[in-house]
Amino acid sequence: MSSSGVETESPDLICELDNVQGMVDALTSVRWKRHQDAVLELSEHGIVLIVEDTGCLQAKVYLQRELFVRYEYSAHGRPRFGVSLGLFVDCLNTFCIPGHSGTIEFQYPGPDMQLLLKSTDSLSSCTYAEIRTRIPDTISWDYNFEPAGSTPISFTVKSSALKEAIDDLEWPGSSIQITLQPNPPSVTFKGEGHGDLQIDFMYYANMDLLTAFNCDQTVSHSYKYKFLRATTSNIPSSVIKDNRGSKLTIGRGGMLKVQHLVSVARPSNSHTHVDSVSYQPPSRIAYIEFFVKPQVDEETAYDS
Amino acid sequence: MKFKAFLTDHGINLLEKRFLQALDKMGKVCHLYLTRDHAIFLHNLLNGDGIQSIAQFQKEALFEDYRISSQNDDRIAFTIDLSLLHRALRSILTIYTEFGGSHSSDTASNRLQIKLVKKLPPHSSQPMPFLTFETKGYKSAVIQDVPISKPLSRADVLELQAALDMAQDLPQTLVQVPDMNQLQSFVDRMKHVGDVLNVSITKYGDLHLQISTSLITLGAEFRKLKVIGEQARVPSGDENLTAQTRTRRAIDKGDAMSVQVSVKHFFKSIQCHLAKPDCAFYGIAQQGSCLTVVFQFFVPGTRQTDKSISLHCRLPVLIDSGTN
């Protein structure tokens, strides 16, 4: 990846973060199974972590450089490397011991292409880690999300409500149909399997829940329940308590994009969750995006 | 073979609120070894490769009117299920405290007696040994029988005593853990990453923990800790080195030792702080034969060691270090 000439000089990236818990929260949100390979992509804009499942589900966590208290990027091109997501999160977790709110330093690459982590919040103790990296797969990961029409078809819903709805749909399971219709403006989740369950979000009935709605034509697509579930099931409860909105957009061909926001702001000395509901600079937010491919079985193909 | 005593309020508090829950984490079943002067809870001393723990109380720390007699130099030992013991004690306390413990005016009539008995259990023709608690409340008297093993034979008691004597050796260098709670949450998280923990202790007062697998190396170094026993001066120019290099140099100079133990055992040893010790010290026994943790208890309200209580654990070392 990085040429040998660069190695002897400065590493591709040295950065420091003062809220490891925020990063753990963000990465945990995309941890939907035990063993997941993740690809990290470094650039002058920040770090992107990408995970994927069976060509049908992809998640990206954007950690912009503004989240970091120090961000020194000196690579050419965009270095990419693979790590085990579970191991990375478990490792980061050991850096956020309560009452131990230190700064953590990341460096890539180490002498043996490792990702190096180090926390030195006091002279008398330090925590360090070296994570072995892999060469990532060469296939393009991009899901090529394109808007479905002239106006994007999207809605924004409170994260907790979305999670609750998707959790409830576990009972019918298997396949979930999401329908947006402009008149009356509403979103419908419908599960058919062991039984039928339909959950409606009516825009005018409950504007606290459904905070934004954009749709000029009725669209309807089905998604595999397990992939839909992955988009909300692992969001940490602290993030659900924040209860920002999650934005869902349906693109061309029914590709579903789910976006969440996770605060990576340094917790103030009072309690975190109370404060984080109030205003926080947008720069201290990690963006999380899921892309879910629609199911293309005979029925839906026939519909369109 | 007879044993009969009354648990003091201090003894009840020590066992019920502190030690039994800590010892239960070490393992469900332990030996209770009673001598003329001591009551000792022992884990894994005779058998196996588990973590050894030794909680020793002078009889005055727990009991009054302590009477013991046996043909084996007044020593009795048996195995007991700690969770049953804890449950029996908790249950009997609900009655015992009706009188406000032994602080009531009617002191003599309300005491918590503990004794060894043989009884015929229901549906059985063979009498079985029990450790029995007995007390009374306003309207009721309660007896709780905790089943125990048959008392150990003379040979087994001797073996237990020999193992206990062996386990009293202290490491040459002990370092004090700065903050048990912090160490506990750290190791709790660390144990997701690997199974084998490298523990290095230097005579300068450094404690270095590291898990290393083919995918990750994760470690923490705590420095400038209080040292008991053999010390050495911190070499100059050591400050800017990495934790790994510092430890390696210290080992090369003979100023440090390093062993590998199971992360699970290490975590268990930290859980001993449920017994609310005032300090904890880690040290490596001679020739790296085990990792020892010694807990220190102060006389309440002082900084003086309470010599009537002692607790320490010995963690078995994993052989064949160097390979993961």
What does this structure look like?
- Chain A: Belongs to the rad1 family.
- Chain A: InterPro entries: DNA_clamp_sf, Rad1_Rec1_Rad17.
- Chain A: It is found in: Nucleus.
- The complex is a heterodimer of chains A (304) and B (324).
- Chain A is built from 8 helices and 18 strands.
- With 304 residues, chain A is an alpha+beta fold.
- Chain A has 2 domains: 120 residues, DNA Polymerase III, Chain A, domain 2 (Roll); 151 residues, Proliferating Cell Nuclear Antigen (Box).
- A 9-stranded antiparallel beta sheet of chain A has the order 6-2-3-4-18-17-16-10-14.
- Chain A is elongated.
- The termini of chain A are far apart.
- Chain B has 324 residues and is an alpha+beta fold.
- Chain B has 2 domains: 165 residues, Proliferating Cell Nuclear Antigen, CATH 3.70.10.10; 144 residues, Proliferating Cell Nuclear Antigen (Box), CATH 3.70.10.
- Helices cover 25% and strands 36% of the residues of chain B.
- In chain B, a hairpin with a 3-residue loop joins strand 12 and strand 13.
- In chain B, helix 5 packs antiparallel against helix 7.
- Chain B starts with a strand and ends in an 8-residue tail after the last strand.
- The model of chain B has no long low-confidence stretch (mean pLDDT 92).
- At the A-B interface, helix 3 and strand 9 of A face helix 5 and strand 13 of B.
- Strand 9 of chain A pairs antiparallel with strand 13 of chain B.
